Amino acid sequence: MDILHSAYNPEHFREQGHALINLLADYLTDAQSSRPSLPVIPWRAPDEQYEHWKNFLAVPGSTEDFFHKILKDSIHLHQPRFMGHQVCPPAPLSALAGLLGGLLNNGMAVYEMGGPATAIERLLIEKTAQVLGFDARQAGGFLTSGGTLANLTALLAARSRYAGAHVWKDGHQKPLALMVSAEAHYCVDRAARIMGWGDAGIIKVPVNERFQMRTDLLEMLYRQALEQGVEVIAVVGSACSTSTGSFDDLAAIGRFCHSRNLWFHVDGAHGAALAFSRQHRAVLAGIETADSVALDYHKMLMTPALTTAVVFRQDADSYGTFSQQAQYLFGETEREWYNVAKRSFECTKLMMSIKAYSLLYTYGETLFENYVDQVMENGRIFAAMIEAQPQWELAVQPQCNIVCFRHAPPGLSAEATDEHNLRIRRRILEDGRFYIVQTAINGHTWLRVTLTNPFTSAVEMEDLLGFCEKI
Ligand SMILES: Cc1ncc(COP(=O)(O)O)c(C=O)c1O
Question: Which of 45, 95, 188, 307 has the greatest number of C-beta atoms within 10 Å?
Fold first, then answer.
C-alpha cells in the first residue's frame, strides 16, 4: 500500500483508535486511583525537554510508543493531586467528541463548512444565555478559542457600539478607555492595547481587602478620565479574578454602567460557570445586566480546551464586532447567525460546540451543576484545613475553588517567608507528585491551588500540606 493510502486507511484507523482508547482508558483508571503510578508532572526544564524529545523522535518507533510516551510525559490533570492552573480534567466523553470533530474537521467559518456544529453552537449559546439569566429571545453569541479572545471580541463590540460604526475604516477619532479591577486577568489589559488605546486606555480600579473592585471609586475615576480628555466606554467586571478567585460586585458595576451609558462586560472565564449551580449562582448577581459575558467551558465545565462562549445580552451587538466585509465568504446579507466567522475572530474554527454539548446531551445540565458544586466544596474544605492549622495562612477567604495560602512557620521574617514558600513550590514542581502554582499578592509570594479535579479529596489536600511541611 502506498503511503497516502496507508495514512487514510480506515482499518489502520480502527486498529490505532482501539489501541489508543484502550491506552487512555487504562490511563484514566490509573490516574483516578488512590495511588497513581505516574507523577502528576514529570518535570523537565525546557531545554532538557527539548533535547529529550529530539532524541526520542530521532529513533523510529511505533505509533503506539509515540502516544504512550506523550501520555507518560505530560502533566496529568485527571490525577486528584493536580491542583494547579485553571484548566479542568475533561470528562472523557467530551474528549471523544473532540476526536470526532478532529476527524471531520468541519471548518465552521461558513455555514456550509459545518452545519450541525453551527446549529449546536447556537443551541449551546442559548443554553448558556438562559443559565446566565439573559432573556433567551434577545441574547446571542458564539463560541471562540479561549477567554483571552472572547474578552477582546466583546470589547471590540463595545468599541463598535460607542466609537461609531466607521472605526474600521477611519480608525479612532478620540482616545478611548475601559475600567477594570487591578486584579483582572492580564488579557483585558492586552485587549485595550491591541485596540491601540495604550496606557491611558486601561484604568485600573483599586481593590478592597478581598481583592474585589472598589466600585465606590468608579464615578470618581470616570470623571477624572473625562477631565483628561479620555472617553471611557466600558467597565469589565471579573467573575472571578485569576489570582485570588475574587468576584466583583457585578450588580454595582451594572448599575454604574447603566447610569453612564457604558458597555458592561463580565470576564467570567473561570467563574461564570457557577451560573449552572443553584447553590452558588448568587455570587454572580447582576451578571444578567451585562452587555457581554465570556465563559470558558474548558475551565469549570469539564470540556477540553479551547471552548469559550461569548454571550451578548442583545444579539444584535454580536454583529458589530467586525464590520469588515468578506464578500466572497458571506454574500450580501448582513445578519447571518449561521455564518459564524462573521462574528468570531477565527475564520476556520474547531467544532467546539460538540465537545460541550456531548455532555449536556448525555448527562443533562445536572452534570455541570454537580461538578461545580463539588469543586466549590473542595475549595471550602481546603480553606478550612488551612485555617485550622497554626503554621498555615490564608491570603483571603476564598469565594470559589481558587485558594491562596502559605506556610508561615513562626520566627521567619516576611522576606524569609516568601523565600520559604518559593522553595516549597519549586520542590513540589521538581518532585512531581503534586502540582500547585504560586502567585504574588501585595508583593509577597503565596502558594495557590485551583481545585478543578472533582476527585481531589481531603486525603490529597492533607498529603499536600504534610509534604510541604517537610520541605
Ligand atoms: C479571569 C480570566 N480571564 C481570562 C483568562 C484567559 O482565558 P484563556 O486561557 O481561555 O484564554 C483566564 C485564564 O486563566 C482567567 O482566569
Answer: 307
Ligand 1 atom, smallest distance to 238 CA: 1
What pLDDT, on the 0 to 100 scale, is given for residue 326?
47
- For residues 186 and 300, state if they share a domain: yes
For residue 414, give the CATH number of its domain.
3.90.1150.170
Q: Determine if ligand 1 sits within 6 Å of the CB of residue 86.
A: yes
Question: What is the total count of domains within the chain?
Answer: 3
Strands 292-296 and 263-267: parallel
**Is the CB–ligand 1 distance for residue 269 below 6 Å?**
yes
pLDDT at 332: 46
Nearest Cα to Cα of residue 91 among 295, 363, 374, 376: 363
258 Cβ partners below 8 Å, 6+ apart?
264, 289
In angstroms, what is the span from residue 242 Cα to ligand 1's centroid? Answer: 7
| Dist. CA 185 → ligand 1 center (Å) | 7
> Is residue 317 within 6 Å of ligand 1 at its C-beta?
no
Per-residue pLDDT band for 34 (boundaries 50, 70, 90) equals confident
Mean pLDDT of 198-226: 98
* Alpha-carbon span 11 to 433, nearest angstrom: 39
CB 148 near ligand 1, within 6 Å = yes
CA-271 nearest atom, ligand 1: 1
Domain final residue pick, 36, 56, 90? 90
User: Rounded mean pLDDT of 160-166?
Assistant: 78
Q: What is residue 335's predicted lDDT score, i.e. its pLDDT? A: 80
Ligand 1 probe mutation, 180, 187, 308, most atoms within 8 A of CB? 187
- The domain boundary residue, chosen from 90, 122, 148: 90
Q: Which atom of ligand 1 is nearest to the CA of 151?
A: 4
Over range 372-387, report the average pLDDT. 98
Whether residues 372 and 414 fall in one domain? yes
Compute the distance between CA of residue 58 and CA of residue 66 in angstroms, rounded to an integer: 12
Note whether 76 and 222 are same-domain residues: no
Domain span holding position 401: 366-469
* pTM for this predicted structure: 0.96
CB neighbours of 33 closer than 8 A, spacing ≥ 6?
none
Assess whether 156 and 180 both reside in one domain.
Answer: yes
Nearest ligand 1 atom, CA 306: 10
